[in-house]
Amino acid sequence: TCNAFWNHLKEQLLSTPPDFTCALRFLKEIKENRLRNEIEEALDTDLLKQEAEHGALDVPRLSNYILNLMALLCAPVRDEAVQKLETIADPVQLLRGIFRVLGLMKMDMANYTIKSFQPYLQEHSIQYEQAKFQELLDKQPSLLNYTTKWLTKAATDISTLCPSSPDSPGSSCSMACSLPNRAAYNSEPPSPTMVLYQGYLNLLCWDPEKEEFPETLLMDRIRLQEMAFHLHQLTILDSVLLVARSFSGEVLFSSPEFVDRLKCITKALTEEFISRPEEAMLSVSEQVSQEIHQGLKDVGLTTLSSENTASLLGQLQDIAKKENCIRSIVDQRIRLFLKFCLLHGMKESLLHFPRGLILIERELAELGWKFVSLMHHNQQVFSRYYAEILKNIIPPAQAQETDVEPI
Prior knowledge:
By secondary structure, this protein is mainly alpha-helical. The chain is built from 16 helices and no strands. The longest helix is centred in the N-terminal third of the chain and has 49 residues.
C-alpha cells in the first residue's frame, strides 16, 4: 500500500502537465503534524504546572504564543479580533477575550465543515427521499393521483390565454401566477419544464379547501404555505410603500432610515391582515400619514394639504380590497419575478430586479432564494416521476423537450 502511494505520487508529478493533488495533500499532513507537535510541546500542561509552582511561568510569552497561533489558524474575518487581543494588557480581560474569539473560531470551523459536507448530505438526502417514496408508491400505486391533477392543471394554465389584462384591477391570482402564455406567441405545446415551473408557482396560490396538495410536495407543504403568506405580506408592504412614496416624494424615500421605519410600522400593523384587513389598513394609513407629515416637516418641506392627506388615507385603506389595482399589479410582479428566478436562477434574476419592487428588494430576494432552493430540491428528488406524468400530458412527439430539466 505504501509503495502504491509513492508510485501514484510519482505518476502524478511526471504527468504532463504535472498533477500536484497528492503532493499538496501530503504537504498539508506534514504541516498539520508539525503544528500539532509544536502545540503539544509549547502547551505541555505538566511543565506549565511546574513553572507556575516555582513562580517561573512566563505569562506574556505564553499569551503571545497563543495569539500568534490564533492568528495563524483563524479565518480572515477574525484577523481584526485577534489583533485587538494583542493590545489588551490586563491578563483576566485577555484570557476572557481569547476564549470569546476561540468560540467564534470554533463556530467558523463547524460552519466550514458543514459547508464542505453539504453536497454529500444533499445527495444522500435525495437518494433517501427517492427510495422512501418508491416504497410507498409500490404499496399504493395511486399515490401520484393528486400530483397528476396538479401538473394537468399547470399545463392547462400555461396553454390557455387569460382574458384579463395584466394591468386590470380585477386580475386574479391564477392569472398572476401564470407564466407568460406560450400559445400567445407560437402554436407549439409548452415544454415539460415550463409546465412544472407553472405548477410550482401555482402552489403559492393554493386553496386547500378546493384542491388536494400534490403527494410529491406534502413534506414541503408547511414551508410553501409560509412562503405564500410571506408573499402576501410583501404584496401589502410594497403596495403601502408605493402609495406613500407617491405622496411624499423621493426626498424622504432616499433615506434608508425612513423607508425602514415605514416597513417596521407596516409589518407590525398588518400581522392580522388576513383576518382583519380593513382594520389593519386603517391603522397603517393613520400611522404612515403621521410619519410622512413629520418627515416632510423635519426636512423643511411643505406638509401635505388636508385634501392630499385624505387622498393618502383613502388609497392606503383601499389596499385592504383584493381587487385594489396597486395590490393586484404588485402581486403579479412578485410572482413574475419568482418565475424568472425559476427559469434563469437567482443570480441573473437579481441583476434584472424589477424597478417596481425595488423597495422590497432585500425581502423578496430572501423569499426567492428559499423558493428556488426548495423547488430545486423537489425537482431533483421527483424529476423521473414528473417526467413520466408529463409524457402523458404532453406527448413527447409534440413537446419541445421530453425531459424535465434541472433548475
